[in-house]
Amino acid sequence: MNSKVTNRIALSVIVLCAAAMATILISMLGYILVKGLSSISWHFLTTSASPFMPGGGIKDQLWNSFYVLFITMLLTVPIGVCGGIYLAEYAKPGKVTSFIRTCVEVLASLPSIVVGMFGLLLFVNYFGFKYSVLSGALALTVFNLPVIVRVTEDGFRALPRHQKEGGLALGMTHWHTIKTILLPAAFPSILTGIILSAGRVFGESAALLFTAGLSTPDLNFGNWNPLAPNSPLNLFRSAETLSVHIWSVNTGGIMPDVDTIANGSAAVLVICVLIFNLFARMLGKIINQKFSGK
Amino acid sequence: MIEMKNNIVSFANNTVTQKRPVQLSVEHVNIFYGENHAVKDVTIPIHEKSITALIGPSGCGKSTFLRTINRMNDLIPSARCEGTISYKAVNILNPKVDVVQLRKEIGMVFQQPNPFPKSISENIQLPLRFAGVRSKKVLKQVTEDCLKQVGLWDEVKDRLDRSATSLSGGQQQRLCIARALALKPDVILLDEPTSALDPVSSAKIEELLLELKTSYTIVIVTHNMQQAARIADYTAFFYQGELVEFGTTKTLFTTPEKKSTADYISGRFG
To answer: CA neighbours within 13 Å on the CB side: how many for A210?
Structure first.
């Protein structure tokens, strides 16, 4: 066959595949938004869910999703970033290091339902945290930590080696080189990775079914004492998140407007994740410019 | 390959007739990468306030040797080093030597210009601040002095807060030299500093090195034999990990003792 013809065939196949991919994604996104946007209203976002009457909202679920996400990030980011820096900068190549790296990879691809069951056994039962924000956040930490470690390690490894040598050759210690040169240079990619993983955590349901629970106590948004049982900030209350809510109304909801609620919730979820992603890109770009001078 | 006639090479700075004191005395240095014996039993004096060039074909161990002088090879886990390099009566290969302090006194400039992705002034001030300089006035003054020393001041004085990566390759390399000078080292090691640059920028760096050697000891690895001939007072020829010949540049280029040196500088191999 003529090499020009091969070239043309290859191009058409690639274009076709790309088009198929784009069509699937866009139509799915479109379907969710078209079906869901109509049910989103201020009332929908600011009303608590009603168990069997129509007209319930998703206020508590939305709050729970963000709160669980926040606690998860509070736990994972410091540990994950430090772990990633260790693997990229300090760990000596050898059996132990490659074993740790394999563990991180396996953990990153663990099915989330398995993480949920693990969380049920360890955090909910063994530690006695019950179905709670804390149990959910800890389970999501197991789920998210390897991702942050990977993102950080990759961010550091992507830096040119001569940056590090430059710092060391100027009489700076290894830590100072990491702190003042490598971390700022890797920061935009690490931050982007963190925000993208936040999107994943935000949409996670299976890991939360058995850890954060399927219900939310009557929250009093005027009570910000984290020890009060009805406070939104209480770590030891159960907390149904938005994605768990979608699952639970679809499988066992008895309110007449189940479809509207599910569609609306799905759209809100997708829009939040979309905002995370756009935000990640924007912030990465701004910070990159800021750190590297104008 | 370059057909170089020895008699047409000018030795602009071989005006150094009397020997300068030895700053670094290298004795029986052996360097290994795992099983690979990369540098074999090298003994060589490095004279104060002069330029010593290390030449030789790729993979001859010259860069490895250079990187040992300020212990940059410590970064490579499999690298191992034997022998002594005496500097101020201390063997700098001793594991107990404080490498951070050592690298302040023996600075290094790399093949690829490696300014930090920060502003021009920050590139010079960052290592200074780590070294304990706090006064803003001093920092500003040193920045200006160092940039003037490398002839970069007039080119960048209006954009010191711009990113160093916006400079041209030659400017970046001069900034890297300025950054090394800011720490007031005794010795500056340069690993093929002009091989990534265009001829005009290279010439500027060569001129700069000739000026700098009045106050600093300079060791330069170069692929370019004419460059060694133009700027170096002493030249060492490395081949397959061994130091074949060392002497004043003039002697080495005009009356080499060994046949392989003669072959290399006349362009018969390498």
So the answer is: 16
Nearest partner of A132 among A226, A248, A239, judged by Cα: A239
CB-CB contact of B194 with B205 (8 Å): yes
Q: Nearest 5°: phi and psi at B137?
A: -65, -45
Tell me the CA end-to-end span of chain A in Å, nearest whole number.
52
Residue B96 CB: number of other CB atoms within 10 A?
A: 6
The domain total for chain B is 1
Contacts of A38 (CB under 8 A, 6+ apart): none
1.10.3720.10, 3.10.129.10, 1.10.600.10, 1.10.10.10: CATH of A41-291: 1.10.3720.10
Residue among B70, B116, B176 minimizing CB distance to A181: B116
Instruction: Choose the mutation target among A170, A179, A289 for the interface with B, i.e. most B CBs under 10 Å.
Output: A170
User: Chain A interface, mutation test: which of B116, B187, B190, B191, most A Cβ atoms within 10 Å?
Assistant: B116
The pLDDT tens digits along chain A (294 residues) read 788 999 999 999 999 999 999 999 999 999 999 988 888 888 888 888 877 777 788 888 899 999 999 999 999 999 999 999 999 999 888 888 899 999 999 988 889 999 999 999 999 999 989 899 999 999 999 989 999 999 999 999 999 888 999 999 998 999 999 999 999 889 888 998 998 899 889 989 999 999 998 888 888 888 888 888 888 888 888 889 999 999 988 888 778 888 888 899 999 999 999 998 898 888 888 887 776 655
CA neighbor of B83 nearest in space, from B25, B28, B24: B28
Residues of A with CB under 8 A from a CB of B: 92-93, 160, 162-173, 176, 180-181, 184-185, 291-294
**Are A139 and A67 within 8 A, CB to CB?**
no
Rounded Cα gap, residues B101 and B95, in angstroms: 13
- B131 to A171: CB separation less than 8 angstroms, yes or no: yes
Range of the domain at B220: 20-265
Query: CB distance B114–A168 less than 8 Å?
Result: no
pLDDT in tens, B193-228: 998 888 888 898 899 999 999 999 999 999 888 899
Q: Which residue blocks in chain A are alpha helix, DSSP H?
A: 3-37, 42-46, 59-85, 95-108, 112-119, 133-157, 161-169, 174-177, 183-203, 206-209, 242-252, 258-291
Asked whether the beta carbons of residue A184 and residue B118 sit closer than 8 angstroms, the reply is yes
Of residues A164, A147, A141, A157, the one with CA closest to residue A73 = A141
ipTM passes above 0.90: no
Contacts of B112 in chain A (CB under 8 A): 160, 162
CATH of the domain at B219: 3.40.50.300
Angle among Cα B41, B45, B49 to the nearest 5 degrees reads 145
- To the nearest whole angstrom, how far is the Cα of B174 from the nearest Cα of chain A? 14
Q: Is the Cβ–Cβ distance between B123 and B166 less than 8 Å?
A: no
Residue B138 one-letter amino acid: V
Report yes or no on B9 lying in a domain. no
